[in-house]
């Protein structure tokens, strides 16, 4: 849509991925875009959007075919997510469902767990969510207070979670709990909860957010929720923190890549606008301030694109380290916010109107510096390697 560098193509793209990109774009235009405004108004995507995406093969694209997935790589996941952001539908949190939850199951689940949950996630029969954050604990995940304590052949889960993406639609939730509350980070485990199979689970408010309005971001309550011991992810208790750390690079690259798409979109809409709009008898583009600012934005977006592409290449080879992923997440989302803000200014008052995509991008971008680990936490991780 917007060419940052003449003739540049992401090095990880292939002919097959080009075809996927085209098909995914058509799918979003046909199936999702007509409902986008309604989803924003109601604060969540329609539940059947997940089934439609499943039928079209857009869920669990990088999960092995053996478990009902698409048998692709992380590159397939990237294409599906990037096109979603290009289409302007960030509320459909497939990145959490396919990019995170399904991968926890594939990486740490038993054969039985994988066979039970992954095919249903791939078809859209089950929507996934990951519940880490609590009202009292976000960044400091080692201090979660929710517990899953053994009682016979079951875990009894108690606690409260908040800000959980897909919180209203999800039926399969990966809950971060303490199985040993006295063991600090070593007592953290991941336990799966199938919401339709248990008692004591309750969804709280679908939270009213600044942006990303079509995403259902919710409170969740667990009151003596009983699940079988076999719902633990991993061979033994206390692996949760390690499991989270292993998966984080992938999650952070998904966020960084969506940030780059937003930069490109912002530049596209803004250059179109400043070529049309006039003031003092000139196009807004003819002012040197406009040219210099947009030249800076374009350069920074190009730097972000090449950095993320290199991260994707390394990720696909299994070589991406957590520090580099943290750099990409922090820098790209900071730049996303700066660029969108700069671009919005060129729209004058129109930039503040929700009917202009740039206004939506402004509101939607802000959270990118907060979720997936705040940008301050990213800098802490990077600083540890100094
Ligand atoms: C729209 C949205 C969707 C979300 N989706 C999910 C989800 O699906 N699942 C989920 O579990 N969570 C989700 N979250 C929660 C998100 O991951 C947390 O908000 C985030 O990790 C920060 O935690 P917190 O809000 O408790 O902030 P806090 O941890 O209280 O931090 C407050 C501020 O202090 C700073 N800070 C904290 N510790 C340090 C430190 N050591 N040094 C310097 N500064 C520090 C932080 O960077 C931040 O600026 C979502 C949040 C939002 C807004």
Fold topology:
Blueprint: H1 15-32, H2 36-42, H3 48-55, H4 74-87, H5 94-108, H6 111-123, E1 128-131, E2 147-151, E3 154-165, E4 172-178, E5 188-194, E6 201-206, E7 217-228, H7 240-276, E8 278-279, E9 282-283, H8 288-316, H9 322-345, H10 357-365, H11 375-383
Parallel strand pairs: 1-4
Antiparallel strand pairs: 2-3, 3-7, 4-5, 6-7, 8-9
Helix pairs in contact: 1-4, 4-7, 5-6, 5-7, 7-8, 7-9, 7-10, 8-9, 9-10, 9-11
The structure holds flavin-adenine dinucleotide.
Keywords:
Butyryl-CoA Dehydrogenase, subunit A, domain 2, globular, 386 residues, three-stranded mixed beta sheet, four-stranded antiparallel beta sheet, Butyryl-CoA Dehydrogenase, subunit A, domain 3, single chain
SS content category: alpha+beta
CATH class of the largest domain: Mainly Alpha
Total domain units: 3
How many beta-strand runs? Answer: 9
Architecture per CATH nomenclature, i.e. the level-2 architecture of the largest domain: Up-down Bundle
| Average of pLDDT | 97
**Major sheet strand order:** 2-3-7-6
Q: How much beta, percentage-wise?
A: 5-15%
Helical content class: 40-55%
Shape field: globular
* Termini gap: 38 Å
Number of helices: 11
Bound molecules: flavin-adenine dinucleotide
CATH superfamily of the largest domain: Butyryl-CoA Dehydrogenase, subunit A, domain 3
| Secondary-structure element pattern, one letter each | HHHHHHEEEEEEEHEEHHHH
Main sheet characteristics: 4 strands, antiparallel
CATH topology of the largest domain: Butyryl-CoA Dehydrogenase, subunit A, domain 3
> Cα-atom Rg, whole angstroms?
21 Å
